[in-house]
Amino acid sequence: MDVKLPNLGEGADSGTVVNIYVKEGDQVSKGQSIIELETGKAVAPVPSSATGKVTKVMVAVGDKISVGAPLISVADGAGAPAPAAAKPAAPAKPGSVRASVAAAPAPVAEEEELEVEADDADAGGPPPAASPTIRHMARELGIDLRKIRGSENGGRIVMSDLRAYVQRLTRLAAQPRIAAAAAAPAAPAKKIESIDFSKWGPVVKKPMTQLRKVISQRMAESWNAVPRVTQFDEADLTIVTDLRKKYADAYDKKGAKLTLTSFAIKVVADALKKHPMFNTSIDEAAGDIIFKEYIHVGVAVDTDQGLIVPVIRDADTKDMVRLSKELNDLATKTRERKIGIEELQGGSFTISNQGGIGGGHFTPIVNKPEVAILGIGRGSLKAVVREGKIEPRLMLPLTLAYDHRVIDGGTAVRFMLEIVQGFEKFNEAAVKIS
Fold first, then answer.
1. Bridge partners (DSSP) listed for residue 233
2. I want to staple 395 with a disulfide (CB 3.0 to 4.6 A). Which of 178, 196, 234, 336 is the partner?
């Protein structure tokens, strides 16, 4: 049997083969990793779905494959049993035509709707039984009630019969347009032409990596689909800075690094509990707003391959030590490209902290299908007026980008103020190690 690429989860329906762990003649068991696939922002092992001897390897390193693509062939395996062969149909006996016709399946509803009802052919005779309301509505719509088959006793026409008849006429009227559209030749796709930059000087051409292609596609989708608004503010980091200095050594002894991002995750998680609209997504197909009863915070990690966003699950239920440990572990796995696909999915809000690199305010792009993202720049000393006096204060630039389809400006301001207050009045009890 052939072992094929399974669906590895949301956004992982295709990828590039980066490693092959088996060769022809090897013995594999069910669940054993056979290849390693770069799917979007993660490198994931793909397990075998069968046990047996590898007779053929059907992929090579660098191949781009999709769900259902064959990976290897396995002989003498204990995989899923082959489907039973269908029994051949018995030949029809002479004279059994009537029985065959009687056993034929009824035509589908769409075909029946294209036919004209028998009542339509003969609109003569007395008017059928119907209430004055139905008769008045039929006259307003220009419908002859004698063409409608009533469903009540004695053929009496009720509102549901009239509605069904109007809907049927609508479908019949649309059918020629649908058929014409189907028959019309498709418009040719706009051809994208390459620019020969070498005409103006030396160039070096490198293929875009699979990760960079995914980032490019996701950013373009978000930019085109989300009407975004950006809110700017600053937070006084005096208290947070003092707490970091006070507890950094204690956290190091626990194997946890106390960083500004650790504080930011805690502040954001607390704010999301008070402002649940920022913890939603839009179900565009159904036209619903999905309020999530969990708080999973994504943290953008800068890697040599591009920006990757692992997710810290249930951030509102974890103390600062656990948040700091998990943040450090996820960041390390992400930079080493050992992060799993499931660890990149399910985020409900994202934090992008560029402060470690530098820079101030910036406008982050909403990580669709989330509805908001918080951007953090590098803190800097500024002259700030406090109680009529000018004092030097370490101020943190904050940027909130949000989906205006769900969030209004006033709601965004209140949420941003909650974030600012969270930094400026951070509770020391949340940092203490019990």
1. 398
2. 234
Domains of the chain: 2-75 (2.40.50.100), 115-174 (4.10.320.10), 227-430 (3.30.559.10)
**Edge-to-edge order in the sheet of strand 33-39:** 42-47, 33-39, 14-20, 64-66
What gap in Å lies between CA 171 and CA 177, rounded to an integer? 10
Q: Which amino acid is at 73?
A: S
Query: Is residue 404 among the annotated active site residues?
Result: yes
Beta strands in 85-225 (DSSP E): none
Closest Cα to residue 361, out of 371, 370, 352?
352
CA distance 341 to 9: 7
Please name the amino acid found at residue 20: I
Q: Are 21 and 34 in contact (CB under 8 A)?
A: yes
The DSSP 8-state label assigned to residue 430 in this structure reads G
List the pLDDT tens digit at each of the 434 positions of the chain: 889 888 776 556 778 888 899 999 999 998 888 988 877 667 778 888 889 999 999 999 888 888 889 999 998 654 444 444 444 444 444 444 333 334 444 433 443 443 334 344 444 556 778 887 788 788 777 788 888 888 887 678 888 888 888 878 877 776 666 556 556 665 566 677 888 888 888 888 888 777 777 777 778 888 888 888 999 999 999 999 999 999 999 999 999 999 999 999 999 999 999 999 999 999 988 889 999 999 999 999 988 878 889 999 999 999 999 999 999 999 999 998 888 888 988 999 999 999 888 889 999 999 999 999 999 999 999 999 988 999 999 999 999 999 999 999 999 999 999 999 999 999 999 999 87
Angle, CA of 70, 76 and 78, to the nearest 5°: 80
CA 355 to chain centre: 28
